[in-house]
Amino acid sequence: MSVKSSLIGKIENKTAVVGILGLGYVGLPLTLRYMDVGLKVIGFDVNQDKVDALNRGQSGFEHIGDDRVQKALADGFEATTDMARVQEADALILCVPTPLNRYREPDLSYVESTVDAIVPYLREGHLVSLESTTYPGTTEEIVLPRLQQSGLTVGEDLFLVYSPEREDPGNPDFDTQSIPKVCGGLTPDCLEVGVCLYDAAIDRVVPVSSPRAAEMTKLLENIHRVVNIGLVNEMKIIATKMGIDIHEVIAAAATKPFGFTAYYPGPGIGGHCIPIDPFYLTWKAREYDVHTKFIELAGEINTTMPHWVLDRIVDALNSRAKSVKGSKILVLGLAYKKNIDDLRESPALDVLRLLIDKGAEVGYSDPHVPAFRGHGDLQVEMNSTTLSRESLEAVDLAVLVTNHDAFDYELIKNHAPLIVDTRGVYRESADHIVKA
Length: 436
Description:
The chain is an alpha/beta fold. It is 38% helix and 13% strand. The strands form 3 sheets. Strands 3-2-1-4-5-6-7-8 form an 8-stranded mixed beta sheet, with helices on both faces. Strands 10-9-13-14-15 form a 5-stranded parallel beta sheet, with helices on one face. A two-stranded antiparallel ribbon has the order 11-12. Strand 7 (181-185), helix 7 (188-199) and strand 8 form a beta-alpha-beta unit. The protein is elongated.
């Protein structure tokens, strides 16, 4: 029996062991899904505290219940920092961060160090899948040469695929199981094994011709959002200056049954993908003498939106003969989107930073983030304010940045003296509500 057939057989009869490297927002849900379908998972992470917490049955994520981790542990899941245990797994799925460096260039150090760590333990019959978002060519240019150092032949002895993660934390309609999985293999045999692995846990697997095609697919998905969000944010600025409610316009345009998709403006963009992924393509495109002006312009618009919010706060306070400096301002929502606790690249943190720099007395309220102990280069500590009539009446202005469902919007409207609404929650006109 060939190496490929043996590995496919182990996956199909549920005797294969899956190793997931990186137990964060992507790796942990994938771990739990494979455990749900009866495939044993060994989880790897360099963070000992995270590994210890998981082995105690604590997920560490608000949207992933501890009970799911506890069930997985009871069914045989283990978390470890010991990379030597890679030998025990048949499939190795890499779910590690791919951030940008200080120059807004791709930082592949997590991918490189993780692949380097597994190479000494690779054996015949391993499948390696990279899920981290990156530029087209990463799998072949960065991962493949490292795997070849093992002396094994990729496509015969071991198999390599790229399958971009599509996690959307807190999405009530789609989860790891129901979001279709794109997969591109280095060779046809690699693709066959990769599709088999994901088909065991995902409702629909979408094969593409190569890892590069799969890498570009993920970038297109997110750049599509970035560009359209940039467009609607620019439209919001124009509409506001013209005295037009952009949310009314979007609702009307959305009645067209073809040729229009509604996107909604906000205080900027956040999360682990949307603010970062476009820069992977713009960086790689320079190698081909292509300048991605359209993408970069959209990114520029989105990154300046917190400054637009600040301008609206200044205008609102000026209308009450107040300055930002010394004013008590409450930021409503720190997470990058509603109903989750994820702070990665959140525009709310930019708004918070700008207000602090201007001398405002700033607090925040976020039911999903009870305590803030610094994030990135914003190193301040504060606790979430419980919303009440008293706490709202005690501030000069409340700025709604993240529209959590848990907020009592009537309470806010009735008792905050000034409101700057960046999310279009308040559609009615009122003297104390400023739309931003």
